[in-house]
Amino acid sequence: MSQLYVDNIRNRTGGPIGIPTGAVVTGVLTATTGNITGNMTIGGVLTYEDVTNIDSVGVVTARSGIEFGVSGVGGTVTATGQAEFAGVVTATSFVGDGSGLTGVASSDNSWNQFDTWLYGGG
């Protein structure tokens, strides 16, 4: 097997070289920029720090929360589990006493009001 020791490789006009049949790198690959125009397969762990948009199918692990939809439409789930949604939320059940709800009459308050109207009492 041949070995080649160089500091830089450039094409004949001084630009980057072309590798039309591909390159196999074993070990660490370090790059300052990258442009992938086709599919990419990662056989291990992909770690990234500066990512704005990700299209993901399957399990998502989010260190600082998830935002979906555009501002004001969609929702946010924070890393601590707080969730905020815009629009209608449909669920089969809700947990809690509902003391923080607004715009919803409680059954206790409704019956007391009804009693006041009928009997003039409380």
Largest beta-sheet characterization? 3 strands, antiparallel
Output the structural class: little secondary structure
Distance between the termini: 96 Å
Our estimate of the beta-strand percent is 5-15%
Number of strands: 3
User: Fraction of residues in helices?
Assistant: 10-25%
Q: What is the chains' assembly state?
A: single chain
Rounded mean pLDDT is: 77
Total of DSSP H or I helical runs spanning 4+ residues: 1
The coarse silhouette is elongated
Helices and strands, in N-to-C order? EEEH
Low-confidence stretches: none
Strand order across the largest sheet: 1-2-3
Gyration radius, in Å = 30 Å
What does this structure look like?
The protein has 122 residues and is low in regular secondary structure. The chain contains one helix and three strands. It has one helix at 107-119, and strands spanning 66-68, 75-77, 83-85. Strands 1-2-3 form a three-stranded antiparallel beta sheet, with no helix packed on it. The model has no long low-confidence stretch (mean pLDDT 77).
Briefly, what is this?
The chain has 122 residues and is mostly loops.
